[in-house]
Design goal:
By secondary structure, the chain is mainly alpha-helical. The chain has four helices and two strands, in the order ββαααα. It has a domain of 58 residues: Winged helix-like DNA-binding domain superfamily/Winged helix DNA-binding domain (Arc Repressor Mutant, subunit A, Orthogonal Bundle), CATH 1.10.10. Helices cover 47% and strands 7% of the residues. Pfam families: DUF1153 (PF06627).
């Protein structure tokens, strides 16, 4: 197996001490659950991927990704759950 040479980091350490790598991110076409959204948001926040790379790789709109980031900032990982969106919108 060959590893591609790249200028970006191969792994990053998150605030909670866990290590995140490209292999830990969801597949390109996937069903979006809160844990997968959080992994992608954490990857961008830690510098593993850029916002543009995520939008292109997962075919997201900029607004959708920005809403994930905002939900994590305000409510944590639970803010990414679809059922929680309704609860948080009213508060």
């Amino acid at each position: 197996m060959f590893i591609r040479k790249t200028s970006r980091p191969r792994t990053v350490t998150l605030k909670d001490g866990s290590i995140l790598s490209i292999a830990d991110l969801p597949a390109d076409q996937t069903r979006w659950v809160a844990s997968r959204k959080a992994a992608v948001v954490n990857a961008v926040a830690a510098g593993l991927l850029s916002r543009e790379e995520v939008i292109q790789r997962y075919q997201l709109s900029g607004e959708e990704f920005d809403s994930w980031v905002l939900a994590v900032e305000r409510y944590g990982k639970s803010g990414l759950k679809v059922t929680s969106l309704q609860k948080f919108r009213h508060s």
